[in-house]
Amino acid sequence: MNGWVVLLWSFVAALVLIIGGIFGSLVVMGRITLFPEAVPTATPTPVETGVVDVTYSVMILNASPDAGLDEQMRDTLINSGWAADVVFASDSASQDFSTTTVYYIADEDELAAIGLANLIGGAAVEQSDFYADLNDTGAKQLTVVIGVDRSTTAPETPAETPAP
Asked: Which residue has the higher pLDDT, 128 or 18?
């Protein structure tokens, strides 16, 4: 019986050495990390959805080659709750403005500008006082410049002119 005990202990010792060797090899090769570093968790950034505020007057400028887009957008705003006497629509001096953009003047107008941009189907939002002089009422105002991205007749890329 003494021979069987020795054989059993030999088998257990060999098994422990093999398992220890495999574990040690995995640690050395970097497949197992004994003390892993904490992985920083990603914190989601809140996305501003804006606020639709119909107390703002809105000036709409059509800077695309399509006639009537300013009036269509004016009708959209009036149907969304704006009073007809605070929404102004006009053609712009240029017809090649690339991206439809909602401009606001003061920092406190940003949420209203984001809300308006979302209401009209998505638009860029920028702070600028370029259109502030056009506001002769002194009321809070947002300006929407309709770009070529809303045009149905403008080509996606400008056509190249052949060399003479």
From this structure: 18
